[in-house]
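Marked as duplicate of an earlier ticket. Keeping the data here for the record.
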Amino acid sequence: MSMDTHQKLKILADAAKYDASCASSGAKRTNGGKGLGNATGSGICHSYTPDGRCVSLLKILLTNRCIYDCRYCVNRVSNDVPRAAFTVEEVVRLTIEFYRRNYIEGLFLSSGVVGDSDRTMDLLAEVARRLREEEGFHGYIHLKGVVGASDEALAKAGRYADRISANVELPVQEDLDQLAPEKSIAEAEGAMGFIKAGIDQSKERGRRARPPRFAPAGQSTQMIVGATGSTDSTILGTANRLYDIHRLRRVYYTAYSPIPNAHQDLPAERPELVREHRLYQADWLLRFYEFQLDEVVTREDGNLDLEVDPKMAWALAHRDFFPVDINKASREALLRVPGLGTRSVARILKARRRRQLREADLRELRAPLKRVMPFIVAADSWSAAATKLDAADLRSEVKQADRQLMLFETAASARTGQV
C-alpha cells in the first residue's frame, strides 16, 4: 500500500469508530468451495456470528467528508478535522489484501454524504458489487443505508450486502430538530420500510423462480444516548416501535462521546457507560423475555436503574411475585428470575422432567447462584428462600453481585442474550 493509502486508512478507520451498529449476526453466506471469504467461518476480532463466534471486520468510512452539519458528529461539515476519501477501487483492494493476510473476515462500510444521498449509496453498493462479482468475495458485508437515497440505490445495496443499517440517530424528531435539523426520523423509516420489503420479498415461497437474495442478515439502526435529555423510556419506546414495524435485527445504543470542537448545545461530558449497558439489557428483556416497557423502566423519571440490571430492578420492586418454584413454575415465570436467561431456563425445564431439582443442580446448570437464590425455591431450599427475599439488605447484596458480573455480562449478553 502507498503512504497515501496508509494516511487515508488512519483517518477513515478512526472516523468510523463512532458507529456502533457493526455486527455480523445473522449472516449465513458460504463460498461453496469457490472464491474468497466465508461469512460463517471462524474469525479473530470484534463481531459475532449467529452461533456466538467472534469475527473481524474491516471497519472504515468511504469518506469523512459530509454535506450535513449534525452537531454530535465529528465529521460534520463545519468541523475542522483532516478529511480523506477512498475510491471504490481502494476499498476493494484493502478488503481483499486484509482478508488474504487473515486480518479480517468481512467489511463494515459507512460514509459521510457527499454530493447527494443517491451518489453516496451507489458508491457503497458498488464496492459490494465488485467484491462479490469481480473478486468472488463471500465474506460478510455490512453497508450503511444512506437515508434519503432512492429505492434503486438501496435495492442495489441489498443485492450485495448481508446487512444494511439506516440510522435514526436520535429517538425523537425534537432531538433531531435540535442537533441535526436537516434529518428526519420519517425519512430514516422510509428507508427501513423499503429494506424490510426487500427482505420480505426475498423470503417469499411458492415462486417458480427463486427470489434474489436481499440483505439476508437483516437490518439494524443506531441511537445516540445522552446527547439530549431524552429518557431511557423514550429511547426504548422508539426501539420497540422500530422492532415491531420494521423487524429490525438489532438496535444499537451508543453513549454520546464528546468530540473535538463540540457545539455548545452538547453536554461537556459523556453519560455513564453503564447506562448504555443497561439499555442493551432492557432491549433483550423487551424482545426475548416478554417484558413490557413499563416493567423494564421502573423509575419515575423514566430512566433505568444504573445500580442493578433492569430485570433485578423489577424483581426488587415485585417481591410478591417470588419465590418461584423451579420445579413447577412456567417458562414465563422462570424468565422473570434475575440471573436466569433463556438458555438456563431451557436447561431447567429439560432437567426437571427427570428429577426434582435442588440447589446443587442449579450449580451444575451454571446458574449464577448469588443472583438466583433469593428469588427461587428448589427442592431443598424453602426456608432459606423466604428469609433471603425479606432481607432488608437484599438490594445491597444483589448490587455487589451485579458489579462482580458486569464485565462478564457485557461480553456474554452480546453473544447469548442472557439477563
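See parent ticket for discussion. Residues 3-165+184-218 form one domain.
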